Amino acid sequence: MEKRTFTLPLSDSDRSYLKMHSVRQGKSPNSPDDVLLAIWNGIDPKAAPAARLDNETVERIRRDAVAAAVAAVEQHRPVRIEIKQGATIRTLPDAHRHPVFADVLATLSVRVNVYLVGPAGSGKTTIAAQAAEALGLPFYSTGAVGMAYQLQGFINAEGKYMETDLYRAYDGGGVFLFDEIDASSAQALLAFNAIAANDLAAFPCGTVKRHADFMIVAAANTFGAGADAQYLGRNPLDASTRDRFIDVVMDYDERLELAISPNDQWTRHVQAFRKVVRDLKLRHVVSPRASIHGGKLLSAGLSWDRVEQMVLIRGLSALDAEKVRANMPRRVAA
């Protein structure tokens, strides 16, 4: 099958398709159009020079790849999910999905908005993109915003309306991911409330009727009560904002983490490290990205101790790092 081609400027449908692809590649869907296009063409805009690999490293990579494949089968077998659309029941293709995906999909399928709350790196963006794909709808997204125009759009100096993803989803239908909503400003959220709450909304281009398939996934690290010990840069959300969503709470899925990470032994070490950090109530994030990035660094030939320092210890004080090491179980300690 011939690979699709895209050219700039992107159409709305092409942009939505490339955003989904970007999420599947582990990249941000909020990148500029030229970066989305580069990711589609297999070009990493920030690619580092390739490291030279000796035979021992190549063999280690092979062993880790085999171990990862075994883990994917044994630790997280794909779950079959059915979605009801009207009188039709459709079975989704088998895939690795977070346990809360079914709840998010069911909620969106009846056109109810979702407030998806979970720790950094737990897969909130991926869930939103997967839900849009399962529903056969375009996927739109934005990160934290400080000004209302970033959501509403604006009229430029030539009198042309500059659209936003929120406008495209509201007008044409689709799943709109408002990522890090709890890091957005109160001014921006007031404008968002007016759009999210009504069947008609005022945009700079005029009054727009809400599409029947417009739905929102708001992703956050907090429940909207403001900053906590872990996430200091978060703002409290107005009660009217929170009232527009159904909460779906998620955490790291360690079985899925094992399935998608390249080194099973390292991933189990990361998971043990995370548990100790939580038990000690330290303000330190240990997300599945630590498993993925650390596994890649090990395959590139870096030592275990060096990777641990770069991926897990960084950001911890010397005293806290020593506390964690002292409480790590022997069977997974480096």
**Level-2 CATH architecture of the domain at 99-249:** 3-Layer(aba) Sandwich
Would you tell me which CATH topology of the domain at 99-249 applies? Rossmann fold
- Tell me the major beta sheet: 5 strands, parallel
Please give the CATH class of the domain at 99-249: Alpha Beta
SS-based structural class?
Answer: alpha/beta
* Unreliable runs: none
Q: Could you tell me how far the N terminus lies from the C terminus, measured between alpha carbons in angstroms?
A: 46 Å
Determine the CATH superfamily of the domain at 99-249.
P-loop containing nucleotide triphosphate hydrolases
Biggest sheet: strand arrangement: 4-7-10-3-11
The tally of strands reads 11
Cα-atom radius of gyration: 22 Å
Number of helices: 14
Share of β-strand residues? 5-15%
List SSEs in N-to-C order. Answer: HHHEEHEHEHEEHEHEEEHEHHHHH
Shape: globular
On the 0 to 100 scale, the average pLDDT is: 85
Helix content: 40-55%
